Amino acid sequence: MGKLGDMANKAKEMAKSHPDQADQGVERAEKLVDERTGDKYDAQTDKAADAARRYYGGGQQQDQQDQ
Predict the structure, then answer these.
(1) Closest CA relative to residue 61, chosen from 17, 53, 3
(2) pLDDT in tens, 3-62
(3) I want to staple 19 with a disulfide (CB 3.0 to 4.6 A). Which of 9, 45, 46, 58 is the partner?
(4) Where is this region: Disordered (predicted)?
């Protein structure tokens, strides 16, 4: 696998090992995109953030707090 693939795999493992920190990064990225696009793609960024969180098992504490 190439360097990019290796880096992606390392990032995935780190996110699984530190889901709280990964959640913060996903949330920051989502907010940044929403701010820069004037919330034009809010539904899409929500879906992408949720998919990312499901991938590494994050967002569970956030979901519990929302209930």
Answers:
(1) 53
(2) 888 988 888 888 989 999 999 999 999 999 999 999 999 999 999 999 999 988 887 654
(3) 58
(4) 1-67
Dig out the tokens for 1 from the structure. Answer: 């696998």
CB 53 within 8 A of CB 66: no
Q: What angle do CA 20, 21, 25 make, to 5 degrees?
A: 120
CB 56 within 8 A of CB 15: yes
Helix boundaries (H) for 1-67 = 3-17, 19-36, 42-56, 60-66
d(CA 46, CA 11): 21
List phi, psi (to 5°) of 18: -135, 65
Angstrom distance (rounded) from CA 20 to CA 61: 9
